[in-house]
Amino acid sequence: MSKLKAYIKQMRIKGWLKNVFVFAPIVFSLELFEWRKTLSVVLLALAFCLVSSAIYVLNDICDAPKDRLHEVKKHRPIASGLITIPSAWIMFSILIVTGLVLFAYVNLKSLIFAVIYIIINVLYSIWLKHKVIIDCFCIAAGFVIRVLVGGTVVSQGVSEWMFLTIISLSLFMAFGKRKGELANYGNGATREALGGYDMAFLNGSVFLCAAITLVFYSLWSISQNTRLIYTVPIVLFIMSRYLLQVFKGRSDADPTMLILSDKVLLVACGVYGVVMIVLLYFF
User: Fold this and answer.
1) How many Å apart are CA 252 and CA 243, to the nearest integer?
2) Which residues make Cβ contacts (< 8 Å) with residue 103, sequence separation at least 6?
3) Cβ neighbours of residue 168 under 8 Å, at least 6 residues apart?
4) Which member of 97, 168, 250, 267 lies 3.0 to 4.6 Å from 245 by CB, making a disulfide possible if both were Cys?
């Protein structure tokens, strides 16, 4: 693998799919076609792509010794030695600074949220990832901050129901990811926190978070626009499909990989997006 390909792989571009959460507030505030605001959100999403890639670099620097014991992660550029640790630190610095400059260019509030995101993830990379349950809440915090950053551009910000929906959905995905990891690598050799989890607890947590996510989403959709209640069955299908893949042990239940590798799930998410836009903007 060439050096350039190694650096591109290290950025984990597929993981940028998570940054679609930045667009949630502008879509649901009915301001998507206000082009200046949309451009600002695009810049914020790009900034988040750079900063999240920087966090991936930091995480892989910290995890390199354990990643070498993992049958999949051992092929990552840093763990495999394609990118040296000093080079990885330089890459981290460039990505983080460029991302923060973009946040500052758009507005000060997004910069503050970005700094909070970085602090949480630095602590996660060096310490909190080893703390049971706290690790999942750190993952969830990343999604919530993405939405809050998007909310700095729109008029009404982020509603209470949207906040509750996002945090419960994020925990649903985080606990599902830990369930997949525990099923495949339960000895804790590749992730210390796995030794503190119990499969029965994770099963219960996944279903609990799935249930409250659906309730919060339903209440949010009614409060936002009564027509949006017709999207609830689509959301129920998406969550059910995701749960099926989690319990089948697909890809460690990583949300990004599951969506990109499961055509049915990918199409369902696309249908949800189209239906949502139509109901919000054309009815």
Assistant:
1) 12
2) 44, 47, 51, 110, 111, 114, 149
3) 209, 212, 213, 216
4) 250
* Spatial CA neighbour of 224 closest among 83, 29, 68, 61: 29
State the pLDDT at residue 257: 79
Question: How far is 119 from 139, CA to CA, in rounded Å?
Answer: 13
- Residues 262 and 245: their CA atoms lie apart, in Å, by 9
Pick from 115-119, 151-155, 212-216: least confident? 151-155
Q: Which has the closest alpha carbon to 175: 100, 237, 243, 120? A: 243
Question: Which two structure tokens, joined as six digits, stand for 46?
Answer: 């790009």
Classify the C-alpha dihedral 193-198-203-207 as positive or negative: negative
Tell which wins on pLDDT, 29 or 1: 29
Q: CB pairs under 8 A, 24+ apart, for 68-73?
A: 69/189, 69/190, 70/185, 70/190, 73/190
pTM reported for the whole predicted model? 0.89
Six-digit token pair at 14?
């597929």
pLDDT range class, residue 22, cuts 50, 70, 90: very high
Neighbours of 205 (CB within 10 A): 21
pLDDT tens by residue, 84-135: 888 999 999 999 999 999 999 999 999 999 999 999 999 998 888 888 899 9
Average pLDDT (134-146) is 93
In whole angstroms, give the CA distance from residue 21 to residue 4. Answer: 28
| Amino acid symbol at 257 | M
Furthest-apart CA atoms within the chain: distance in Å: 55
The answer to whether the beta carbons of residues 51 and 98 sit under 8 Å apart is no
Q: Is 55 exposed, middle or buried (0-12, 13-18, 19+ CB in 10 A)?
A: buried
| Res 17: pLDDT | 87
Cα angle 26, 29, 34 (rounded to 5 degrees) comes to 60
Evaluate the CA torsion angle 171, 258, 249, 65 in order and state its sign.
Answer: negative
